[in-house]
Amino acid sequence: MARPTATDRECEGPIHGTAPPHSEGPKSALILGNASPVGRRDGPPSTARRKLRSLTPQHRIPRLRRMSRLPFELLLALRYLRPKRSFVSVITLISVLGVTLGVAVLIIVISVMSGFDHDLRERVFGFNAHLKVLRRDGAMPDWQSVLAQVQTNPLVQGAAPFVLGQVLVETQPPFGQPRVFAPVVRGCAPELEPRVSALPRSVVSGGFQLGPRDLLVGTVFAENMGLAVGDRVTLYSWQELRRLKESHERQQPEAILPEEYTVRGIFDAGYYEFNANVVVTGLEDAQELFDLAGDDAVHGLMVALHDPLQPQTAARTLRLQLGPEYVVTTWMEDSPLMLAVLVEKNVMLYILFFIVIVAAFGITCTLITFVVMKTREIGVLKALGATHRQVLWVFLGQSLIVSIGGVAAGVGLGLTAIAYRNEFLAFLRRATGFELFPASIYGFDQLPALVLPRDVAIICGGSLLICLLAAAFPARHASRLNPVEALRHE
Question: Are 314 and 155 within 8 A, CB to CB?
C-alpha cells in the first residue's frame, strides 16, 4: 500500500485535534461533499480521494491550500450550495433570484419616490415662498412697513410682496376661433422677486423686464394658447366681469373695456402646474386688476428662509414679531402634496419589504431541503466531533452567502434600472402607445429619481437581517440533530 503524501495528510487533517486513522475516509469525503459510511477502516479509497490522487501535484496542492484557508463551516456551506446531480442548486438559484428581485424593486421604487419628493420640493421652492405673511382682515395696505419688519429677522433671507388671483385670458390667433383660458395671475415686484424665487432665472424666451401691461407666461400655457413673445392678449379680472354683468343687467350705456397685455417672456418653472396655469405681471398692474391700487395694497408677502427645511421656527418668531393681526403660513401648510409624497415613500418602503420577506421564505424552504438531504452527513459531522455551533453556522453560512449574492445582484439591477428609467419609458411609449407617467397628471416631463445612500443601506441591511432570521429555524434544527438518529436516516 502506497505511503500517503503530504498533500493527502493535508486533505485528511482532523476537525478538532488529531483524528484516528479510520476517520480519514469520512473526513476527507465530507470536505469534498460526499460522505462515506462510518466504520469502514480498511476498504478501498472513496471516489473523491481517487479523483484527488489522479490530479497532478501542481494542480491539487494550490487548490487544497486555498480550501484550507477557508473556515470549516464556510467550506461546507459553499460545497453544499453546489451539489452534483441534485436539484438543490436550482432551488438555491431561485432563492438568490427572489432576493435579487425584492431588493431591486425596493431600490427602484424608493429612489423614484425620493426623486419625486426632491424635484417637487426644488421646483415648488423655486416658484413659491417658504413662508407667506397675510393679514387676517384681507388685503395688506401697510405692506412696506411689514416688509421692513420681516427683513430684520435673522432667519429670513428675503421677502417680496405679491398679488394673486384668477383671471380670464383671451387670445385671437390669426386663423380660427378665439382661445379662452382661466389661469392664475401673480403680481410681483421685479426688483424684489429675485430674493424669494427663481422666476427671473426661469425665463427661456424674452426677458424678465416687466413694464406696464407686460405679461410672462409658462411654456405649456404659451403652447396651448398659441402665444409667442410680442403677442397681445386680453385679461379680464373677476371684478371687471362682475361690473360688466351689472352694467348689462342695468342696461347702462357705458362700455367696460378689458385691458390688453403684451407677452414679454416665456418661463419654464420645471413644474407642469406652474407652466400651464400661472401667468405673471407687474405689481401695479395686478393691483389695478383686483382694485387694490387705490390703497397701494397687496395680498401678502412671500418670505424666503436660509433653511427652508425648518420653517416652523421662523414662522413662530414672525408671529410673535408681527402680532395677532397677521397670519404666517409655511410651505408645509400650503403644499400638502410634498408631505403626502414623503408619507407615501415611507409606506411603500414598509409594504415592499414584504417582497423580501417572501424571498426569505424561499431561503427557509431551501435550507429545510438541505437539512433533510444532508441529515446523514450531519450525523457524520457530529460523530467526528463537530459542535452544535459549527453545524449551526454551516447552514447560516449558506443563508448568508445566498443573501449577500442576492442583495449585491439586486443593488446592481436596481441602480441599472434607475439609470435607464427614462429610456425604458420612452421605449414602452413607442412600443405600446401608452404613457406610464403622463406629465399632465404628475407634473414632470421625465421620471425623477434620487438614489440616497441611506435608503440603499437600510434596504440592504434589512434584507440581510430578514434572510438570516428566516434561516435561523432550519439551521437550529440541523444543529440539534441527534448524531445516532441522523446516522440511521435513510
Answer: yes
CA atoms of 337 and 23, how far apart (whole Å)? 70
| C-alpha span between 228 and 265 (Å, rounded) | 8
17 lies in some domain = no
Does 149 map to a domain?
yes
Domain span holding position 461: 88-118+339-487
DSSP track, 115-129: HHHHHHHHHHHHHS-
- Single pTM value for the model: 0.64
Task: Give dist(CA 360, CA 88) in Å, integer.
Answer: 16
pLDDT digits (tens, 9 = 90+) for 205-264: 998 888 899 999 999 999 989 899 999 998 888 777 777 666 666 666 555 667 789 999
Flag whether 9 is in a domain.
Answer: no
Grid cell 386680453 is found at 234
User: 212 and 192, same structural domain?
Assistant: yes
Work out the number of other CB atoms within 10 angstroms of the CB of residue 339.
13
Query: Is residue 448's pLDDT more than 80?
Result: yes
228 with 133, same domain: the answer is yes
In 172-309, where does DSSP find H-type helix? 219-225, 238-250, 272-277, 283-289
CB of 478 closer than 8 Å to CB of 382: no
How far apart, in whole angstroms, are the C-alpha atoms of residue 23 and residue 14?
9
Domains identified in the chain, total number: 3
Higher pLDDT, 418 or 96: 418
The contacts of residue 153 (CB under 8 Å, 6+ apart) are 314, 317, 318, 321
Cα separation values, 205 from 146, 202, 209, 220, Å: 34, 9, 12, 13
Query: d(Cα 232, Cα 262) in Å, to the nearest integer?
Result: 4
Residue 358 belongs to some domain of the structure: yes
Top-confidence range, 7-16, 28-37, 275-284? 275-284
> Which residue in 288, 283, 326, 11 sits closest to 161, CA to CA?
283
Question: How much of the chain is in helix, strand and coil states, percent to nearest 5?
Answer: 55, 15, 30
Look at the alpha carbons of 217, 222, 227, 229 in this order and tell me if their dihedral is positive or negative: positive
